[in-house]
Structures are given as structure tokens and as C-alpha cells.
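Quick question, first post here. What does this chain look like in 3D?
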Amino acid sequence: MQRLVPFALVIVLAGCTGLGREINQAMPEFLRSDPGEEEMMIFRQVRQARDWSQEDLAEQERQVAEITRLRSEGEWDDAVDRIEDYLEQFPVSTHDENVRFWRGDCSFRDDQWERAYEAWREFTLLHPISDYSVGLTETLYTMGKDFLEGNRSSFFGIFSREGVGVRVLNNLIESFPSSPRAADGQWLLAQYYLEEESWAEAESAFQFVVDQYATSEWHQPALYYVAYCRYRQVKGVPYDPRKMREAKEGFEVYLAKASEGSWRKEAHDIALEIEGLRAAHVLSIAEWYIDQGKPYSARYYLMAVMTRFPQSDAASRAKSLLPGTPAPEAEVRPSGEGGQPGAEKPIGSGKAG
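> Answer (accepted):
Ran it through. C-alpha cells below.
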């Protein structure tokens, strides 16, 4: 089994990225590396410092001095090449943290932002606690924001890089979840999905802000947008009313918690509109039963509209229909709101009131 260790090591050193995990899961079960204690043991073994000879240590110092010189002279591309050589020769050393950070920094300064991101993604994996972290969160936020706003493109400006921005900000949030920029980055992602009208993704992103960043300035606005994104997913009166209900509940939460919120009027107006949609949905069930010649069930839903949504247009319509639904000889049990019309069961005989 010793021959399997290098292959497992490759999976671990793939950066524990999404691709690495996909490859790992695609392997046969006897080769698969579970992301648990065994994987972390291999990772720690890789990170253990080696006993370098005096000649090795001297060579490390010489190469680091050369890299430092190239950086000071702004020779960013050459510095990256020297860093790559150094890391291949000395994958673990006392200079590892600095050198790996410099690799991303040189690429960033050389305007090679995607290459910088890849370098820093590896850096944060290997050095999750670092003196560089505060400055790095600011830089990652700047990069992600610029990519998302379409300010960076490739191939003569034809291809945008919004997807890179999504990856950069997700890495920021996952690597530094407690940093102030994590909340800012999550808000940017949510706004991006909102502008793309990807309502389900936007709802999830705003909900993450609500759940994880209760003290952030984005918390109350996110409450509104969670409800708004649910509202935009409502397909119309005939469909499942669950999303209508969830949207209305979301606006009610916003109105209750954001006493001075900027969108209180909008939230109130949309909540009223949703109530009208919910009432119309129940009325549509009543009308269906009328068409099917099932007056008891129709009366049940007409009364439900009038009782639950008394101020709605649907309630007025239900009131006008109610006298025209004669009481049947056999009573039936309605299936309930949101149930499939026609799923009725006799419950006895008598006159409906």
C-alpha cells in the first residue's frame, strides 16, 4: 500500500480545491481519500520541516536574497520564476510563508490577477494564520469587486471575468470568515446574483448574510432582499403558494426588525400584493370546484377566501359567487389549500350550510 501514498498526496496537494475533491470522489472507493483525520495526517507530514544541510540553508538564503532584489527592482515576472524554482527545490523552509505570499504579490503587481489569485489560494491553505492576512483580505476584496464589476477582461475585452470574481470572493469568505471584508464580499456576491436576476442564487446569498453577519451593516438590507428574491420566484396564481407564503413572511420579518429600513414602503406594498395573489390562488380552487359541479368544496374555499383575505378583490368575487353554490346532498372533505383539486372523500350526507 505504500505505493498509494504519493497518489493520495497528490490529491491532498491539489489545494483541497473543488477540482481536487471531484477527482477524489471519482476514484474507486479503495483509492479514495476521505477528507478527515487521515488526510490531515498526510497534510501535516508534508508540512513538517526537513533537516536541511548547511549548504542547503545557505542556498536558500542566496535565492531569497535574489528574489528580494528582483522584487525591489520591479522585475515581477522574473521574481515569480525564481520563486517557482525555489519552491520546487525547497517545498518546505523557514522562508515558506514569505516566499509563497510574494509569489501572489508579484503576479498582482504585474497585473496578472488570476495568477495572483491562484498563488494566494494556495498560500491561504498552507498558512491560514499569517501576518499577511489583514492586507490580503483587502486585496482579495478589491480583486473580486473589480472582476465582478466587469473592469477586467481578456482577449481584447471580449470575455469578461465575472466568474473569477465569484471564485475570488468565495475564497475570501471561506478563508477569512471572521474578517470585515467577508461580509462585504458576501454582499457583493448577493448583489451580483440580483443584477443577473438569478433569484434562487441571490436568495441563498442574501440569506447567508442574514445568518452569518447579524452585526454587519448589510444585515437589515439582506432581510429585505431575501424576501424580494422569493417574491420574484413566484410564478403566478395557479402555482404552489409556498413561495408566496415564504415571501410574505420574509417581508414581515423585515418590517418587524428594520424599524427605520429604507424599503419599508416597498415591503409593505409587495406584502399586500402577495396577499392578493394568495387570495386569488384559493379563489381559483373554488372556481375549479364550481366548474366540476362540486358545490360543497367550492363553498369551503369561497368561505376560506372571505375569512382569510377579507380585504382582497378575491374576497369580493367569492362573496358574489357564494349564493350560486347550492348545498349538495353528499358532503365531501376538501383537500385543503395547495392540495390537488378533485382529491375529495365523502364524509357523510346532509345539507351544507
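The chain has 16 helices and four strands.
Residues 243-353 form a domain with the Serine Threonine Protein Phosphatase 5, Tetratricopeptide repeat fold (CATH 1.25.40.10).
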